[in-house]
Amino acid sequence: MPERTVFFVSDGTGITAETFGNAILAQFDFVPHRVRIPFVDSADKAHQAVREINHVGELEGKRPLVFTTLVDMEVLGIIRTGCKGMLMDMFGTFVQPLELELGIKSHHRVGRFSDISKSQAYHDRIEAINYSLAHDDGQSNRDLAGADVILIGVSRSGKTPTSLYLAMQHGLKAANYPLIPEDFDRRQLPPALVTHRKKLFGLTISPERLSEIRSERRPNSQYASLANCRMEVAEAESMMRRSGIRWLSTTTKSIEEIATTILQELRPERLSY
User: Fold this and answer.
1) Which of 13, 51, 194, 207 is buried most, with the most CB atoms less than 10 Å from its CB?
2) Crossing angle between the packed helical segments 43-60 and 73-82, to the nearest 10 degrees
3) pLDDT number for residue 174
4) Global pTM?
5) Residue 90's pLDDT is what?
6) What's the rounded Cα separation, in Å, for the pair 184 and 235?
7) What is the C-alpha separation between 7 and 17, in angstroms, rounded?
8) How many degrees, rounded to 5, is the angle at CA 169 between CA 168 and CA 172?
9) What is the C-alpha separation between 174 and 267, in angstroms, rounded?
10) What distance, in Å, lies between the first and last C-alpha atoms of the chain?
11) Of the candidates 249, 200, 248, 210, which has an alpha carbon nearest to the alpha carbon of residue 232?
């Protein structure tokens, strides 16, 4: 398929527009060229965005796809009038009909972070991120009682990215601990985790995929060998079964799927807003 560019245009960071657009694009089997244009908060910036979008359309011979989350009507009007791409306006599609249905006007705030200094949820999220960084890869045993979840699994099974996603997206204090050969020899969980069993959640992975990931970091090493990966995964899964720890395989799952499963199992109230 010929190159097709997708623009995400916003008067804020563009994260909402990109999330909205990518959720829709995921339904189609093609890989677009993505361009985010954030902070389009003036007429001049809107005209500049229009020129960029239209120029790309001329080069590719196909009109670009344009997802917007613009609340300033003057800016949105310039994009609507001048843009030669296929325009999909999130607020026009969803916010205006909701205003009619609810009988109230929306806040029309530029970006979701406009009142961030007053947000307790934002403060809690920053605290959770700091906690997760301090408790990454078993580097600290301090205040494990304060953890919302403690992830365990072999090295490179997805613990760190999942911990940070839980902290950044859901405000959970997520620690993570690697299961290492010494734990398998003792056939016991790391001593620091025993009293926090209810907070433990295990991540596993197929040995073949684990070997691929480890080979990127340490090629031709015992650490990355398929035989060693098979041994570690088998031992880790056996330990989790013996200890009654809930776990899942990260082999074919996205971070979002992994995090949602963990929330359902350990903190279902965090799925409500």
Assistant:
1) 207
2) 20
3) 96
4) 0.71
5) 85
6) 6
7) 9
8) 70
9) 12
10) 40
11) 210
C-alpha to C-alpha distance for 152 and 135, rounded to whole angstroms: 12
Question: Which ranges in the chain belong to alpha helices (H)?
Answer: 15-25, 43-60, 73-82, 90, 96-102, 120-134, 159-170, 181-186, 207-217, 226-243, 255-266
Phi, psi for 10 (deg, rounded to 5): -150, 155
Residues in the chain: 273
Residue 111 C-beta-side C-alpha neighbours within 13 Å = 14
Chain-centre distance for alpha carbon 82: 34
Q: Nearest-CA neighbor of 259 among 181, 163, 156?
A: 163
The pair of three-digit structure tokens given for residue 82, joined into one six-digit string: 């001048």
* Residue that the structure tokens 């799925």 belong to: 271
pLDDT digits (tens, 9 = 90+) for 248-267: 999 999 999 999 999 998 88
Span 157-171, pLDDT tens digits:
999 999 999 998 888
Q: How many CA atoms lie less than 13 Å away from 137 in the CB half-sphere?
A: 5
| Nearest by Cα to 9 from 102, 62, 81, 75 | 75
Task: Give the DSSP letter string of 68-96.
Answer: EE---HHHHHHHHHH--SEEEEHIIIIIH
